Amino acid sequence: MRIAFGCGLLLAALAATAQTYPNKPVRMIVASPPGGAPDILGRAVAQKMGENLGQPVVVDNRAGASGLIGAEMAAKSAPDGYTLFLGTTTLYAILPSVKKNLPYDIRRDFAPVTQIAGASNVLVINPSVAAKSVAELLQLAKAKPGALNYASAGRGTPAHLAGEMINVLAGVNMTHVPYKGAGPALVDVIAGQVQLIITSPIAAGPHISSGKVRALATTGATRNPALPDHPAMAETLPGYEITQWWGLSLPAKTPRAVAERIHTDTVKAIHAPDVRERILRTGAAPVGGTAQAFEAFIAAELQRLGRVIREAKITLDD
Fold it and tell me: pLDDT tens-digit profile of 72-103?
């Protein structure tokens, strides 16, 4: 009887919470500094979400330690609907496989809300490299193991995995050269210090147009609408696919009614014409699907990228 009475009180409290939610501003933790893609996407969605919810949604940038500071803060926040977490490919699907003893468990500590957007990147090479296609680049890599260097924004980043995925699927041995950020890495590709990089079409676009780098392919399963004249890597290397993506989650155990309200207003925000336009300008494609679809997507990415990480023996614990 007491157990039933206690459960009744709990359900009544949850119902009351859902009916009054939200009655104060909502915080969106973005685990990156201002100005980057996660921040731009977060602010675009937060502004419209605030209009839908009737309360401001305030972006709280918590950069540092590859996003771990923000992820840990979100994971340990109260599950009351007043803290949201905007995570990235790295935080959701890469770090769990490359680093032990993370301060969060992506499956245990978070409840997915929706994927906000996704974007395929572009493989560009210095024009001095004698390759006009992915097939020719792979021939060079096979002929001279270890001679081709590919740059990335750092170990364990999507660009690092993108290069290692080529090594794994094509059976070649290109050498990884990590940088402290995508900007310096692209600069050295332009200068010819390294031969290639897989990076954002937004960053590489002006240099492709000027001829400072040569674009060979994009990294999604299909061609990137922003670069329709360039093939997808998978057209030459079957099974190749790696994208950058961003999604919103809540601390686990957030009341279901509150989570559903947040999902509804988030998806409505993502599909608003002005927000869609802002997302498209970043080179990404809006998604805004169900929570179940996002959960399944994260699980699939963990498995798929985890296989590449294991075969390439990538770790951040040394």
Answer: 999 999 999 999 999 999 999 999 999 988 99
CATH number of 122-235: 3.40.190.10
pTM (predicted TM-score): 0.87
Closest CA to 124 of 178, 195, 61: 195
Domain ranges in the chain are: 20-118+244-312, 122-235
CATH class of 20-118+244-312: alpha beta
- Name the residue with tokens 């990076």: 199
Long-range contacts of 301-305 (CB under 8 A, 24+ apart): 301/89, 301/92, 301/93, 301/245, 302/92, 302/93, 302/96, 302/97, 302/106, 305/93, 305/94, 305/97, 305/161, 305/242
pLDDT in tens, 94-135: 999 999 889 999 999 999 999 999 999 999 999 999 999 999
